[in-house]
């Protein structure tokens, strides 16, 4: 019986059925859960980005896990994604001591070192200019990085609400790798280039004409904004209202990554990896919630989707 349960849990992990793992284990009384079951539960909670709950589970078996490199690794991962870098560093160092030279562990330690160095540098006040030529006003707190590529210079509509909800801080290659690991999908190169210039936001062109009518009778779809690569803003890929949130709350098919939300509640634009696999070039689709989450293909790739966006007055029904 127990061997069957272990086999089932391992298969569910392989299929990314993390909610089912949580539900299966939580149906078992807490007093009957051994170290292995708690480890499965904590791992699944990590994959669902419920890191506080994962830490609580791991700590309940801390005595048994103290000599287990994987226990320390999973604790470190949860602390890392909660931005608790010092605690994460200690766990990854213990994991490395117990199982030396594991590539994933060493990579996390490198990321933590990079982040803590950056935070230290940012905490040191900059030397003032001894003879400023002019007095300038301070930059607004949420102003995004200026766009340097002329192709995108007129693309974004940086309203106050867009900056608050969508626009994340400039993204690094390390953060991109971290987000891709959390999503379990490799983001398109064109999307990454766009986000490196302006990490999420609301475009001026929000309509995309399509060759069929939606459930609302329109011959176009409308987007609200693009999710940036990050966790900080509510509407970023791994934010509180990001891709995983929308997939779970609106029962979307588990086929990829949500990159845009829409004014119609529950509708979304997604990257669909079914034709290419998780590391390939995804097609772009629209999820029509009112039509039972009907999938409507929009474009063969992300660049084609961007090029097809038009202003509201340019779309015709």
Automatic annotation (TrEMBL):
This is Knr4/Smi1-like domain-containing protein. It comes from Paenibacillus aceti. Residues 170-308 form the Knr4/Smi1-like domain. Residues 117-153 are annotated as: Disordered. Gene3D superfamilies: SMI1/KNR4-like (3.40.1580.10), Tetratricopeptide repeat domain (1.25.40.10). PROSITE patterns: TPR. TPR repeats lie at residues 69-102. Keywords: Coiled coil, Repeat, TPR repeat. Residues 41-68 form a coiled coil. Pfam families: SUKH_6, TPR_2.
């Amino acid at each position: 019986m127990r061997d069957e349960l272990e086999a089932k849990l391992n298969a569910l992990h392989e299929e990314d059925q993390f909610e089912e793992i949580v539900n299966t284990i939580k149906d078992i009384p807490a007093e009957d859960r051994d170290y292995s079951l708690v480890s499965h539960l904590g791992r699944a909670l990590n994959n669902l980005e419920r890191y506080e709950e994962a830490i609580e589970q791991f700590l309940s078996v801390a005595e048994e896990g103290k000599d287990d490199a994987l226990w320390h690794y999973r604790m470190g991962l949860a602390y890392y994604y909660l931005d608790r870098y010092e605690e994460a560093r200690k766990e990854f160092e213990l994991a490395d001591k117990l199982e030396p030279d594991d590539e994933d562990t060493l990579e996390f330690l490198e990321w933590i070192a990079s982040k803590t160095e950056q935070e230290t540098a940012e905490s040191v006040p900059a030397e003032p200019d001894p003879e400023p030529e002019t007095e300038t006003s301070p930059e607004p707190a949420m102003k995004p990085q200026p766009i340097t590529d002329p192709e995108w210079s007129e693309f974004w509509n940086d309203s106050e609400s867009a900056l608050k909800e969508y626009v994340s801080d400039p993204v690094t290659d390390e953060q991109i790798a971290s987000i891709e690991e959390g999503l379990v999908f490799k983001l398109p190169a064109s999307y990454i280039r766009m986000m490196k210039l302006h990490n999420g936001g609301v475009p001026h062109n929000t309509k995309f004409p399509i060759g069929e009518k939606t459930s609302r009778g329109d011959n176009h779809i409308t987007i609200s904004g693009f999710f940036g690569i990050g966790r900080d803003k509510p509407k970023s890929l791994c934010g509180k209202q990001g891709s995983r949130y929308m997939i779970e709350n609106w029962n979307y098919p588990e086929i990829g990554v949500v990159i845009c939300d829409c004014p119609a509640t529950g509708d979304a634009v997604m990257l669909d990896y079914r034709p290419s696999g998780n590391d390939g070039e995804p097609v772009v689709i629209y999820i029509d919630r009112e039509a039972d989450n009907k999938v409507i293909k929009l474009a063969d790739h992300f660049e084609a989707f961007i090029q097809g966006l038009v202003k509201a007055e340019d779309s015709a029904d």
